[in-house]
Amino acid sequence: MSDMQSISTEKACPVAGPYSQALKTPHAIYVSGQLPAYADGSLPDVSIGEKTRLCIQNLRAILDAAGSDLSKVVKVVVFLTSMTNFAEVNTEYEKHFTHKPARSCVAVKELPKGVPVEIECVALP
Question: With 0-12 CB in 10 A as exposed, 13-18 as middle and 19+ as buried, what is 43?
């Protein structure tokens, strides 16, 4: 357990359950799924593109707290409640992940707090 460090920052939305914002190991940083919320936990009524940006903003803040950044992301998982949002999510996503890390995108029936998108990632320290 000493090789794992729990990462937490007030610059990203708080967790919605009993888990860490991220866990850092000597070889990787595992960032939990991030909701499209502000650091105070509030959920804005904005476009899916803006919600995607907020998820990524939260990933960025957590990676920064762990001593890493988006350029070191090696794997991303995007969860969508509707694949009709796929193109708009991609439009925003590609602005932030220009190095094109490995990615999966899956449609799910529902996400926490009724949001339409959630994004998680794995990065190098």
Answer: middle
